[in-house]
Amino acid sequence: MANFYTDTPQLKYHLNHPLMKRIVELRERNYEDKDKYDYAPQDFEDAMDSYDKVLEIAGEVCGDIIAPNAEGVDVEGPSVQNGRVKYAAGTQENLDATRNAGLMGLALPRQYGGLNFSIVPYIMTADIVGRADAGFQNLWGLQDCAETLYQFADEDQKAKYLPEVTKGATMSMDLTEPDAGSDLQAVMLKATYNEEDETWYLNGVKRFITNGDSDIHLVLARSEEDSTDARGLSMFVYDKRDGGVDVRRIENKMGIKGSPTCELVYKNAKAELVGSRRMGLIKYVMSLMNGARLGVMAQSVGLCEAAYREAYDYAISRRQFGKAIIEFPAVYEMIANIRAKTDASRAMLYETARFVDMYKVLEDVSKDRKLTPEERAEMKYYSRLADAFTPLGKGMTSEYANQTTYDAVQIHGGSGFMKDYACERLYRDARITNIYEGTTQLQVVAAIRHVTTGTYLKRIKEYEEMPLTPELEALRRPLIKMTKMFEKLVEIVTEPKDPEYLDFNARRLVECAGHIVMGYLLLLSTNDNPELFRRSAEVYIHYGQNEVIKNYNFVTKFRIEDLGYYKPVLNK
């Protein structure tokens, strides 16, 4: 029996980070639920034991059911029958297995039937599911939409919908339209309020909706007559049982084929307003998207882990010229880089998840009682870090998912181009990760202000001051040099106060920050567990140093007037 949790010791390492004690104690309100629910933890050790046991169940479901189904799901895919989605047989089996295993609603409070888990073990489950089948991770992971309902819906809505999620109801976020992709303020799906029956009705078309025939939809729609911008948009919740929404078609995608990406037609579909009017995009979708981006990070890490295992297993078994191909430098360099990028991506994922955990749990506590001045400062600190690390992490890890799966195919040679090998599917599945929930280019737009305002540099300096064993000081030195180069680049690019020049070099600055942060995270992990992380730290810091030098050389030799070389000739 395969278990995708117990066979990956890096997961248990990240689960037991020291900050988890603070997160769990806040999440459990000092374990006040222990007298109300027989499955609530008695103390921190009990809570961590629950996390560990559920993750072991998730690992078993992924290893024994979801992963073996992945190839069949990729071939069969979903279909549309009479306006409804019919999942592939393997997808339905996966859903049944995760429901039966109690893996729905992990992070929701116990009063709604959830397990009240922190974000870290929930995201860890997403990491494991992503390794088993990235397409199915989309279906399973969209339960995170329930967090938006928990945060912003009224008490009646929470009581109505959240228990359905914990019982296994699927969710979707219906945001994009044929003419509104990245530019969501262009959304035109119309929401009309009927005074007679005091009900909202939705009319229009949504496109590229993941799991679009879900049970519960969060819908971005235009509620304000004659508006054209973000201030005219509101968030709604739609229950499929009320009817009014049909699936026009399922997109024929390159990858993640088990996940139905739908075009939806709304015809007088009854819906309920979530929160306040006019705040749909400005407030609620931003929260929704940040959660989705953390999910894509987990999906990307899962794909990296799968790519490593496929590449390594093939390289030790495939023989050429009288020896296993892993013995050739050209191959073992690629495999070492895949492992290092996987470990670096996972370290970034869980660092980000802890930041999100901290600020969200403090925000939730503030609904029950007034925060102390120290807690308010703590919430502000972690909120800023979560805001900075989410786009940085989503951009870096999704690019690495593409790179590692590409290299896995390359290591397989001609065999990797064939559907007989899983790496071919992984390569196709990975391609979407740096596109949906905001392209890498949009992550750079979100991250660059944290470069110019010093958020990343301040955190890097905090990493720099953390204690290390003497034998690791040699690995800290290149990171210190990389940081000085990064500081110089920020000065060069911001000094002219030219927005176009800054935008042109933004990707290079954000990448430099990412390499330094991920290098430090691996170094600190090595300090705790050298046997598990040292080789990846050595490889990644060397790799990151070369990337920072490359970006440094480009920017320092580039002049503002050189921008003209790159500008399009519009009359051609």
Which helices and strands appear, and what pairs or packs with what?
Blueprint: H1 9-15, H2 19-27, H3 44-76, E1 79-81, E2 84-86, H4 89-100, H5 119-132, H6 134-141, H7 145-152, H8 155-167, E3 171-174, E4 190-194, E5 199-210, E6 216-222, E7 233-239, E8 245-250, E9 261-274, H9 280-317, E10 319-320, E11 323-324, H10 329-368, H11 373-412, H12 422-430, H13 440-452, H14 455-465, H15 473-494, H16 499-528, H17 530-557
Parallel strand pairs: 3-6
Antiparallel strand pairs: 1-2, 4-5, 5-9, 6-7, 7-9, 8-9, 10-11
Helix pairs in contact: 2-10, 3-4, 3-5, 5-6, 5-9, 5-10, 6-9, 7-9, 9-10, 9-11, 9-12, 10-11, 10-16, 10-17, 11-12, 11-13, 13-16, 14-16, 15-16, 15-17, 16-17
